[in-house]
Sequence to fold (330 residues):
Amino acid sequence: MSATMRAWRAHELGEPADVLRLDEVEEPKPGQGEVVVEVEAAGLNFPDVLLLRGQYQERPPLPFTPGLEVAGTVVASGAGSRITVGQRVVAIASPPRGGLAERVCVASADVLPLPDGMPPATAAAMLITYQTGYLALHRRALLRPGETLLVHGGAGGVGSAAIQLGCAAGARVIATATGADRAAVCRRLGADIAVDNTAADFVEVVKEVTRGRGADVVYDPVGGDVFDRSRRCVAFEGRILVIGFAGGRIPDVPTNHVLVKNYAVVGVHWGLYRRVLPHVVPDIHEHLVDLHREGLIDPLIGAEVPFEEAPEGITMLAERRALGKIVVVR
Fold:
């Protein structure tokens, strides 16, 4: 009789609390070039919400397990894998074999070393959002010390990572958030200026702070009206980084306006690098580990949710109640 484990699985599409069930399933076995990780912590991301709603660009077959990033210990290693049993790792999971399970099978190419002494929750929280932020700011935007960086959604997992990475790069950081409490979180993370969107217009604040020049780099995981208004305060030769569309609406880009100030609209699809330029991911991981060791970055974990309550953690993301990262722990 095969050994079993528990895994959260969606049998239909919809809201997390409605469609996720904690199932007893067969334990995974690693294939060629794969390993099985005993999951101690799993980071949640907004794509988990979109996957469950059927709104993500990739649609795994039902039933599937969400969860894109995990930290834990390798308990089985397939032929051709470079990873040995007992190694402490962080790994990128790919639904339908997602990370909200007691054990998950992943490609060894998607496994990175977990630094000594780093808690699993911290490691899981520092994977996708910080990888995306570093890629966006350093490879795609070529952010330079002294430039002005505007970060939207600064109190969320994606935005909080960008604030810390921008500060570590020597930029002047302006962050936006909805509500005074969330703006205060941005300031604690290191933002030079935090704009409460319920009380002020970030466009006017950016223009005033930069004496009319505008933001050199805009980090936008929101889209919609936020993207449209960011075009009004981007600097000459500025770069607007398209991270995602948490606001729900995918904006259009009027190319005639792009010419007005010679700014660039830059796509940031971190997952694409895993296929096209896979060496970029471990390179960024090394840089992030160094920054964490130096005390320049440290993930803001808003909640550690027990494994049995994972759907509530995803619901927190869906309802915009999350501060920083939400991590499911066992």
In short: Residues 129-271 form a domain with the Rossmann fold fold (CATH 3.40.50.720). The longest strand covers residues 34-43. The two ends are 25 Å apart (CA to CA).
